[in-house]
Amino acid sequence: MKAIVTDTNSPSDTDADTSGGPHAPGATPDANGAPHTADGAAGTAPRTGRHARRAHGRDRSTRAAVATMYRLTAAHRASIVVATVLTLGGSALGLAQPLVAKQVVDAGANGRAIWPLLMLLGGLFVLEAATGAVGRFVLERMGEGVVRGLRHSLVSRLLRLEMREYQRHRSGDLISRTTADTTLLREVVAQALVDLVTGALVAAGAIFLMLWIDPLLLILVALTVATAAVVVASLLRGIRAASEHMQNSVGAIAADLERAIGALPMVRVHRAEDREAARIGERVDAAYDAGVRTAKLASVMSPAVELAVQGSFLLVLVIGGLRVNGSANSLGDLVAFLLYASYLVLPLSSVFRAVGLIQRGMGAYQRIEEVLEMPAEPRPGPAEAAGSTTTGVTARHPVSTPAPALVLQDVHFAYAPDRPVLRGVSLTVPHRQQVALVGRSGAGKSTVFALAARFYEPDSGRLLFDGRPAVELSREQCRARIAVVDQNTHVVQGTLWDNITYAVPDAKETDVRRVVELAQLEELVARLPGGLACPLGERGGTLSAGERQRVALARALLARPALLLLDEPTSHLDAVNERALTTVMKGVTQECSVLVIAHRLSTVQHADKIVVMEDGRAVACGHHQELLSTSPAYRELASAQMIRGSGPGTG
């Protein structure tokens, strides 16, 4: 419902038309067309309140990151325990192999049979591989489960965010948090946590056995590994910062690309493909730079670990060989120690890699957490959800009800404290009558629609639906009473039937045929291959603007609303179709009340009541002829459109 919040006094207009996304209500373009938010940063949401405090007070330590990831997987503890046990079991089988190898070497040196030991060694190897494979599958499945839960939560949250949040964030970036960020997080929860635990335990086991075999050689290994640990620790903070920068840049790529594709006809007409490509290319380059920095730090970290382990291996080989020659140890002891030293590479590498991966994953999780902490509209209860799908006006608005469909009483509203939009508006939409809102752009007409749809709450004053205060009704109950035909009509991917029945998915064919006739879509249905079953393409690209508007009207009428909100219903229609729609609107008032915004006064001059808005106030109210005599503001509008008396307009 993009056009509902497109008053010039509201933080919306230009980007709403060019992006096509739900971020439209908040961004205004700079000289290059890039959206700016309230803090002036292009394409970046301002951090305020809770988010700002969390950003400044964020604990970036590895311990805090591990604790956060542990809490994230709380619902999958059983899978983690099973995977950890299997991984540790496989590692234990691996740790036993050097001891068996030591026995093989010593048995061969003493002339004893080695075949039983070799068979045991092979069996240990096969069991280790099988156990590790099962453990890895359990982990991967657990990771997918965590990501599935996060994505469900993100999708539900994004679809229910307070409208003000879309003023602060770009839709492409929010979508990126649901896709790219959760994908990165999957690798963390599926591997890093268990690798950190099992790697540390396996490394500890290997070190204990090495201590048992030769303490002196172990000291040499510990010194080289400690050197690598110091290097890794110094790199972790940089890896996390670079990862956060990269994820933010990826989100910006999605936002800018969604903006350009949403306005592709305008982009091509103005030959702006290269400019848009250059703008998005800057985001791509920023992501590349951050990715390269992350890779640079990671490339230093991995060799540091490998060189430390390989260096310790060489020290063990040289010094251990000398000690064997000096008869301080047997050849089997040296072989076992060397195997443990080489075996230590994998768990140590997994520990260091897991720590780095957790730090990268925290950058993605913090972006996800920001979305989950954004204020959202409350979810409807079971009774409200059931009522919202009920068809038929009698279910929500009995015919005998005398109360007005909508009343605004001294309503004040501002999108920002210093930008008042409505200044004490009072108006009434009587039962089964047509009321028109007219006035210059920015007078507050679309904001009245936004309040009627409960996208925002008034700063003061009251709204009443069917005589009941809005504060006594849930948003779901209020919206169940209304339907909206937006100026920027929305056609979703699917068939003509899918679009008309969007609000009432289980509608009967007779009801669909009724609204097709009311909206005068018979010719379109006859022309389209497959009729109502014809796919309409992305954003209804196969339809004209007027046809899309009539599809939206049919969709609204099918829900049998108590109040129909029409925003510029004739803006895309020619004179013939405008007259036809005017006739349709008269017929609609036999079913429901109608509140219509119109700049073309010829559309609404026969309305039951016309409300003239100016500078956020309702300055006049009456019939067309009456207002021509009593309202200077209305006379000015009429004069500009060359409307005289009750004759038709040329606008």
TrEMBL record:
<feature type="transmembrane region" description="Helical">
    <location>
        <begin position="303"/>
        <end position="322"/>
    </location>
</feature>
<feature type="compositionally biased region" description="Basic residues">
    <location>
        <begin position="48"/>
        <end position="57"/>
    </location>
</feature>
<dbReference type="InterPro" id="IPR027417">
    <property type="entry name" value="P-loop_NTPase"/>
</dbReference>
<feature type="compositionally biased region" description="Low complexity">
    <location>
        <begin position="38"/>
        <end position="47"/>
    </location>
</feature>
<feature type="transmembrane region" description="Helical">
    <location>
        <begin position="192"/>
        <end position="211"/>
    </location>
</feature>
<dbReference type="GO" id="GO:0016887">
    <property type="term" value="F:ATP hydrolysis activity"/>
</dbReference>
<feature type="transmembrane region" description="Helical">
    <location>
        <begin position="78"/>
        <end position="101"/>
    </location>
</feature>
<feature type="transmembrane region" description="Helical">
    <location>
        <begin position="217"/>
        <end position="236"/>
    </location>
</feature>
<dbReference type="InterPro" id="IPR036640">
    <property type="entry name" value="ABC1_TM_sf"/>
</dbReference>
<dbReference type="InterPro" id="IPR017871">
    <property type="entry name" value="ABC_transporter-like_CS"/>
</dbReference>
<feature type="domain" description="ABC transporter">
    <location>
        <begin position="406"/>
        <end position="640"/>
    </location>
</feature>
<dbReference type="Pfam" id="PF00005">
    <property type="entry name" value="ABC_tran"/>
</dbReference>
<dbReference type="GO" id="GO:0015421">
    <property type="term" value="F:ABC-type oligopeptide transporter activity"/>
</dbReference>
<keyword id="KW-1003">Cell membrane</keyword>
<dbReference type="GO" id="GO:0005886">
    <property type="term" value="C:plasma membrane"/>
</dbReference>
<keyword id="KW-0472">Membrane</keyword>
<feature type="region of interest" description="Disordered">
    <location>
        <begin position="1"/>
        <end position="61"/>
    </location>
</feature>
<dbReference type="Pfam" id="PF00664">
    <property type="entry name" value="ABC_membrane"/>
</dbReference>
<keyword id="KW-0067">ATP-binding</keyword>
<keyword id="KW-0547">Nucleotide-binding</keyword>
<feature type="domain" description="ABC transmembrane type-1">
    <location>
        <begin position="81"/>
        <end position="360"/>
    </location>
</feature>
<protein>
    <submittedName>
        <fullName>ABC transporter ATP-binding protein</fullName>
    </submittedName>
</protein>
<keyword id="KW-0812">Transmembrane</keyword>
<dbReference type="InterPro" id="IPR011527">
    <property type="entry name" value="ABC1_TM_dom"/>
</dbReference>
<dbReference type="GO" id="GO:0005524">
    <property type="term" value="F:ATP binding"/>
</dbReference>
<comment type="similarity">
    <text>Belongs to the ABC transporter superfamily. Lipid exporter (TC 3.A.1.106) family.</text>
</comment>
<keyword id="KW-0813">Transport</keyword>
<feature type="compositionally biased region" description="Polar residues">
    <location>
        <begin position="1"/>
        <end position="13"/>
    </location>
</feature>
<dbReference type="InterPro" id="IPR003593">
    <property type="entry name" value="AAA+_ATPase"/>
</dbReference>
<dbReference type="InterPro" id="IPR003439">
    <property type="entry name" value="ABC_transporter-like_ATP-bd"/>
</dbReference>
<feature type="transmembrane region" description="Helical">
    <location>
        <begin position="334"/>
        <end position="358"/>
    </location>
</feature>
<dbReference type="InterPro" id="IPR039421">
    <property type="entry name" value="Type_1_exporter"/>
</dbReference>
<feature type="transmembrane region" description="Helical">
    <location>
        <begin position="113"/>
        <end position="139"/>
    </location>
</feature>
<keyword id="KW-1133">Transmembrane helix</keyword>
